[in-house]
Specification:
Layout: E1 5-6, E2 21-22, E3 25-26, H1 43-54, H2 74-89, E4 93-96, E5 102-106, E6 117-122, E7 137-140, E8 146-147, E9 153-154, E10 171-174, H3 183-199, E11 209-214, E12 235-239, E13 246-251, E14 253-262, H4 279-288, E15 305-313, E16 320-328, H5 331-351, E17 356-366, H6 377-388, E18 393-397, H7 402-406, E19 414-417, E20 421-422, E21 430-432, H8 433-451
Parallel strand pairs: 6-11, 6-12, 12-19, 13-18
Antiparallel strand pairs: 1-18, 2-3, 4-5, 5-11, 7-10, 8-9, 10-21, 13-19, 14-16, 14-17, 15-16, 20-21
Helix pairs in contact: 1-3, 3-8, 4-5, 6-8
């Protein structure tokens, strides 16, 4: 998953020491149930599962321009079949669709109605770094540079090693430096398969649970073929997060806009008489009309932006197409940005009367999960963390998540759960086994918390 995480102070909540609120939602840490006491997956079993999954070269590939077919790679097909086989071997009810999504449905085993709980992750990895010949290396981190076989290092004194000082003594899995690892999101696959194995134990009491393992997330297409008859939970947790203890509880709404400026050629000396339409100047005016304070380089935190990021010239040399990103957390800011865009278009039409415009695309690419999230979601994770003895940080993400993409298919918004991923989309990628275990444990308690919700 692609991410830039914001530690927004106004949205940050530390759980475990006794916290009252996350924004306007009250967190109830009273009357916590006792610790869970049924058998769980152990570290060595999780490690072996993870190594099996990263051995499958399931990278996704960006389709060629003009290719409208839903893309799938042989490695993703192999990974989907492996997950199906593993889930069926556990005794689960599994559906593998023609689009190579893997769905697992676990019926409730309690005698009351509680919200349906859903878990998602993705089975592909990014095409942005070499993904062939993955050679995982397992180490106990000692605090120094990690020397890779290609001669490079992951150093705690450099940006790609910034997380290492907190991981001394932990089990890390990295590569030889010649490929990425695929922990984004084989970490999530491993965590959720471990969770599935555990909840299938009849001793574990739970409501209705749905799992989905998606292809093509790392090329932004995980939502396109999701079957909402097989996956439509009330409470959703997407397991595709960084290392540490971050819970992504809010994200940008992403609006895409593509406008074509259609010119009318004329000789400059006779431009007025021939009604010259200067599409380049019109497009440049549109681009430059964004107030400086709303450009991305002037925003941070939960402030959104308007970014006209690309302009393409038609082969005829007359017409120009501008592609834009509009990002915001708050709906009122989205309305403000819409007003700015419309005013810019009005200015273009006034100042360049012989340039025509055509909107080729204007739509929401993904939505802020906070808008549609189940109201119990914060409480479930906060209580689960407190029972597990963990501290978690609820953060806002200046980007999108798989759960955010799902909102475009009318699914409810879901939180993104940390998964032990570090330096994803890079040959210096590594995963932390203990952080994966923490995510697994947190979600076990979340399952139990949901089973106790009174509807």
């Amino acid at each position: 998953m692609r991410r830039t995480v914001l530690s927004a102070a106004a949205f940050l909540m530390l759980v475990g020491g006794g916290i009252a609120k996350a924004q306007s939602q009250a967190i109830d840490l009273d009357n916590l149930a006792p610790a869970l006491k049924y058998p769980t997956v152990q570290k060595q079993e999780m490690l072996e599962m993870f190594l099996k999954y990263v051995a499958v070269e399931s990278g996704s590939e960006i389709p060629a321009p003009g290719d409208t077919a839903y893309p799938i790679t042989p490695g993703q097909i192999e990974m989907a079949r492996l997950l199906k086989a593993d889930a069926e071997a556990m005794g689960a009810n599994v559906t593998l669709t023609e689009w190579h999504y893997v769905y697992v449905d676990v019926p409730s085993n309690i005698d009351k109605e509680v919200p349906t709980l859903g878990f998602s992750c993705h089975l592909d990895y990014s095409p942005e770094a070499p993904g062939k010949g993955i050679k995982p290396q397992v180490i106990t981190y000692q605090g120094d540079d990690i020397k890779l076989a290609d001669g490079s290092v992951i150093s705690p004194n450099k940006p790609d090693g910034k997380d290492l000082p907190a991981l001394v003594g932990k089990t890390l899995i990295h590569t030889d430096g010649r490929s990425l690892l695929g922990g984004d999101d084989k970490n999530g696959c491993t965590i959720l398969m471990s969770l599935l194995k555990t909840v299938l134990n009849p001793a574990v009491k739970h409501g209705h649970i749905q799992f989905v393992f998606c292809p093509n997330e790392d090329i932004g297409m995980a939502q396109l073929k999701i079957d909402t008859t097989l996956f439509n939970p009330d409470i959703l947790f997407d397991v595709d997060g960084t290392g540490g203890n971050q819970i992504m509880a809010s994200n940008f709404t992403a609006r895409g806009l593509t406008v074509k400026f259609i010119g009318h050629p004329a000789h400059p000396a006779e431009a007025k008489a021939q009604q010259m339409g200067d599409a380049l100047a019109a497009a440049a005016t549109f681009i430059a009309d964004v107030p400086i304070k709303y450009r991305p380089e002037h925003t941070d935190g939960k402030a959104g932006y308007i970014h006209h990021y690309q302009i393409d010239q038609d082969p005829n040399g007359v017409n120009y197409t501008v592609m834009s990103r509009i990002r915001y957390f708050d709906k009122s800011e989205g309305e403000l940005f819409d007003h700015i865009i419309k005013e810019s278009m009005t200015k273009v039409h006034r100042d360049f009367p012989y340039v025509k415009t055509e909107v080729l695309f204007d739509g929401i690419q993904y939505d802020n999960v906070e808008y549609s999230m189940h109201p119990a979601s914060h409480n479930v994770i906060a209580r689960a963390a407190a029972r597990a003895g963990q501290e978690v940080n609820f953060v806002a993400e200046r980007g999108g998540t798989t759960a955010a993409m799902f909102t475009t298919r009318s699914l409810k918004g879901g939180m993104g759960i940390f998964a032990g991923q570090h330096n994803d989309h890079s040959v210096h990628e590594y995963s932390c086994l203990e952080e994966m275990m923490d995510a697994y444990t947190l979600l076990l308690y979340a399952v139990d918390e949901v089973s106790q919700i009174e509807q």
